Amino acid sequence: MSDITALLDARTSGMSLPQALYTSDAAYHADLEHVFYRHWLFAGHSCDIPNPGDFFVVPVGHESIVVIRDRDGQVYAHFNVCRHRGSKIALQDCGNAKTLLCPYHQWAYSPNGRLVGARLMGEQFDKDSYRLRSAHVRDLAGLLFVCLADEPPDFDRAVADVTPQLRPHGLANAQVIARHRYDVEANWKVVIENNRECYHCQVSHPEFCLSNYDYGVNGDPRSDAAYSEVLTDAYRRWHDQGLHPAEVSFPGGAPYRVSRLPLRPGFVTESMDGQPVAPPMGELPNADVGSLRLISLPNLWAHANGDYAMTTRLTPTGPHSTRIDVAFLVRGDAQAGHDFDPDAVAYVWKMTSEEDWELCENNHAGIRSRAYQPGPLSPLTENSVEAFYGWYETQLREGVAERYTPTYAAQNRSTQTTYR
Predict the structure, then answer these.
(1) Chain centroid to CA 181: how far?
(2) Positions of E strands within 277-333
């Protein structure tokens, strides 16, 4: 960890990160320990598990988390580790099970984690002493988040800020109609950096740029009078529609942003011709509600349009690789072939995502070169990248302090900002 701290000390503000923070095994393990194992992570959608016993498995570094719904509708998250001798329990990515049954010695657990069956353990065996170890889980307007830390950061502020804007899109009662998984040969921070700027968009994303303005990207101060007028008119219209538009960008150092932004004239959604590709979602009066953008560091960004939503989840798999899951949602009662074409729903963001993955792989390949040196960020278009670096550095420094100074967390808990 002294090497990681030295790398952080050596970074110059306004420049990209030192090479080893992208490429070294030490940095990868520090990222897992001090970022992914400490923070709230986007896991999936509540509509993925609508019925009792429905579950899905979320990989997080070396860990595996089972997210499952019980017969009362409550959602639980458990480490995928049997309390007998440690075997993985759920071996499939998703499914339905009345009990979570370990395939090794058939210990059985109820969805709430209680051990309900342990054969041949004797009459004196106390099953209540061997519940599954649970993780924290929260539902954010249909998006499920988990946290592996014993004491998770506050999540109430995110719920308060995001829910009024996201809830009308009805993600809790939506359906996932397309999923795309990618194994990208790039460090997860390279992927986040790419998402945090649109310096590259005009050249690299023709589909995205059909519907989206250059303006409105967090950390990009550029604007003009015409866009300001469009934004003002859009806010007035959204208020009249009963929506609650607001720009909430990483308040107090928190790792999330939510913002509703207008689309270009003639576009009511992010599609190739600007026309809806599915029925209006949730409680929305129509599809002409702009595009709601949400990011939650370290592993989610999402766009919720009037007719569909897209979520992107990152999972680091090594210093040089990231697994990425992109999902597309429409309203729950819409019928494929009648109300929507799955390929049309996914087209713009499938193309945009795959364009990004190629850019990220090229970027990471160059970072691995002996010729790489940190380069300057644009003060006009890459301020949000610099803000990400600051957040990332804080997580590593605080994680090191907590790990190696036992009294640090207790002494500083009362003064830490939301999402420490």
Answers:
(1) 14
(2) 291-296, 300-304, 309-318, 321-331
Given a contact cutoff of 8 angstroms between Cβ atoms, the answer to whether 276 and 307 are in contact is yes
Q: How far apart are CA 44 and CA 299, in angstroms?
A: 11
Count Cβ atoms below 10 Å from residue 192 Cβ, excluding itself: 23
Average pLDDT over residues 195-205: 95
Q: Supply the pLDDT for residue 410.
A: 45
pLDDT for 409: 42
CB of 287 closer than 8 Å to CB of 304: no
Taking the model in full, what pTM does it have?
0.93
Q: What type of residue is 10?
A: A
Q: What are phi and psi of 414, to 5 degrees?
A: -75, -15
Task: Evaluate the omega torsion of the peptide bond into residue 276 and state whether it is cis, within 30 degrees of 0.
Answer: no
Residue 160, token pair as written in the block: 């308060």
State the number of CA atoms in the 13 A half-sphere of 282 facing the CB: 23
d(CA 234, CA 139) in angstroms, rounded, equals 29
As given in the structure block, the two tokens for residue 151 are: 């004491």
**d(Cα 56, Cα 299) in Å, to the nearest integer?**
17
- DSSP letter string, 253-273: G-SEEEEEEPBPTT-SSSSSS
Distance of alpha carbon 79 from alpha carbon 60, whole angstroms = 10
